[in-house]
Specification:
This protein has helices spanning 18-25, 254-262, 382-388; strands spanning 3-4, 28-29, 37-40, 45-48, 52-54, 69-79, 82-90, 102-107, 113-114, 137-143, 153-159, 175-181, 187-189, 201-206, 214-220, 223-225, 228-230, 233-239, 242-243, 247-250, 267-276, 282-291, 311-318, 325-326, 333-335, 347-350, 355-357, 360-368, 395-403, 408-412, 416-421, 432-450, 471-476, 494-510. It has two domains: 14-47 and 408-510, Jelly Rolls (Sandwich), CATH 2.60.120; 52-403, 5 Propeller (Tachylectin-2, Chain A), CATH 2.115.10.20. Strands 2, 3, 4, 30, 31, 32, 33 and 34 form an eight-stranded antiparallel β-sheet that branches. Strands 1, 5, 26, 27, 28 and 29 form a six-stranded mixed β-sheet that branches. Helix content is 5%, strand content 41%.
């Protein structure tokens, strides 16, 4: 894994960059089964792009409200020229019951965070802290672009009325609720719950989810799968004030158990997911919880699912909204906790969603120093809590990044080819063929255009193409100096991408 000590440059959105951002946002992630991937040669391999992880956390416990730890059971948004982070704060006096403290910090660059004092919630005899009045566990915050100003911010989370002492919750019981706010600090919880289950929920605004977009939501709903009681995740959406019926989506099976055993564990389930949206496939970064024995599944207590073990990250992807979730062959880890910096070697838990910033994508994540369940089930002991006070807490928030559009792709060592189908004139993105691709210095990329009979169109063969190499997030393909596609080609238009010693990650191909 490539780790970096340097800090990312602050975001500078110059007007000249706007066009690049628009093009990058319309790129199609390349993955197995993509409807516009028509074929590829036998030596090409489907792969994922590893992220770069900062060696040090970007946020650690530093005040009474988060001295026991900071968890990005929450969201990071780029709101105007500022970044805002809503996170789960674990206070110095945490006793294992009150897990509803939601704090908000702000930043100019998304790396160095300021802790404003909002004066809303009293803790330790003072209101001079960064707590909001959102009474949620695992709070996800998004901006609803169509909502009136008083409801601009939308939050989803779990709450329990008996634990939400001092908060106003119009409730019919514990479960997953939604709330709205004008400023992201002062919240109105709406009557609920939306769903009666409990614990981890992640929600984010998907701008590609139908006209105007919608919030897409994944929440924990425990139950039996593959003969064991496990953490499972359902998905739903929310738009115009209405929540959809949930559907079963992330359910661990025997293959997940087999992968867990290769890690020295007994079984596995899903602890949560982080969303990564695109105009094509949706990627979910799955938090895979691998259970250790002997305190994993207890035959005498079927409801007691595994409680101890590491949490690692894998990629899942959905070719179309509402479709089935797929994985790379063998379900390899994207990131394994044991390979992380020391402060994150126990477990990894992502923010609600990945955030595109310029030409990179960021995912804020929680890293824990101990594996899940190290403190035991039930209330946190004073001994465990004191061990982490003064050292940033048991959980810190880190940052991983990768080049925009590079999560899944196709790798070629020897010369290989990949056939892509052009979209029609109404497809998202400008006309022409643009590639998100990287090669070694000895590599090369060329493209030939074929008609629906798989015949090379005159003037658009490999030898006509202006071949190139190197690292490109948005490389227009040209033939004899022109990027224009043949205007009179009837029927289907196919681009055969020939690549050697490189990887193709995303594309934009429209007539």
């Amino acid at each position: 894994m490539d780790q970096t000590k340097g800090q990312p440059e602050p975001l500078r959105l110059a007007a000249a960059e706007t066009r690049l951002f628009c093009i990058l946002s319309s790129m199609q992630i390349l993955c197995e089964g993509h409807p516009r991937l028509l074929g590829l040669s036998s030596g090409a391999r489907f792969v994922s792009h590893p992220p770069r992880v900062r060696d040090e956390p970007v946020l650690a416990g530093a005040t009474f409200i988060d001295a026991y730890g900071c968890s990005i059971y929450g969201s990071v948004l780029q709101d105007g020229d500022r970044f805002r982070m809503w996170y789960q704060a674990w206070p110095e006096d945490f006793d294992g019951r009150d897990s509803l403290a939601v704090a908000c910090v702000e930043s100019a660059d998304g790396v160095n965070w300021e802790r404003p004092a909002y004066g809303l919630i009293e803790r330790n005899g003072t209101r001079a802290n960064g707590l909001t009045d959102l009474p949620f566990h695992a709070p996800s915050v998004c901006i609803d672009p169509d909502a009136p100003a008083g409801r601009r911010y939308r939050a989803f989370g779990y709450t329990h009325p008996e634990r939400a002492v001092g908060y106003h919750i119009p409730t019919q019981g514990k479960g997953y609720y939604t709330a709205h706010s004008a400023d992201g600090l002062r919240w109105t919880v709406e009557p609920g719950p939306l769903w009666p289950q409990a614990d981890v929920i992640t929600a984010a605004w998907d701008p590609w989810q139908g006209e105007g977009g919608a919030a897409r939501i994944a929440f924990k709903h425990n139950g039996l799968s593959a003969g064991l009681h496990r953490r499972r995740f359902y998905t739903a959406e929310w738009r115009n004030g209405v929540a959809s019926e949930p559907v079963s989506a992330f359910i661990a099976d025997e293959v997940d158990d087999q992968v867990a055993r290769s890690h020295g564990c007994l079984s596995a389930d899903y602890y949560g997911i982080s969303w990564a949206f695109s105009p094509g496939p949706t990627v979910a970064i799955a938090w895979m919880f691998r259970h250790h024995g002997p305190l994993g599944h207890s035959p005498g207590r079927l409801w007691h699912y595994g409680n101890q073990g590491p949490v690692d990250l894998q990629l899942r992807y959905q070719l179309e909204r509402g479709g089935r979730w797929l994985a790379l062959p063998g379900r390899p880890d994207w990131l394994t906790a044991t390979d992380m910096p020391e402060w994150a070697r126990g477990g990894l838990y992502g923010a609600s969603h990945a955030l595109d910033v310029g030409d990179e994508t960021r995912l804020y994540f929680t890293g824990t120093k101990e594996r899940h369940g190290w403190a035991g089930a039930g209330a946190v002991t004073d001994e465990f809590r004191r061990a982490y006070l003064g050292g940033g807490g048991f959980a810190n928030i880190g940052l991983m990044t990768w080049p925009r559009g590079r999560l899944l792709g196709v790798r070629a060592d020897l010369p290989e080819w990949i056939d892509l189908q052009a979209g029609g004139a109404s497809a998202i993105g400008p006309p022409g063929l643009r590639l998100n691709v990287a090669t070694r210095p000895t590599g090369r990329v060329r493209v030939a255009l074929l008609d629906e009979a798989r015949k090379v169109i005159e003037g658009f063969g490999f030898n006509d193409c202006d071949g190139f190499s190197g690292d490109h997030l948005d490389r227009p393909v040209s033939w004899r100096g022109s990027t224009e596609l043949p205007a009179d080609a009837p029927g289907e238009l196919i681009g055969r991408v020939e690549i050697e010693s490189g990887s193709l990650w995303a594309f934009n191909f429209n007539r």
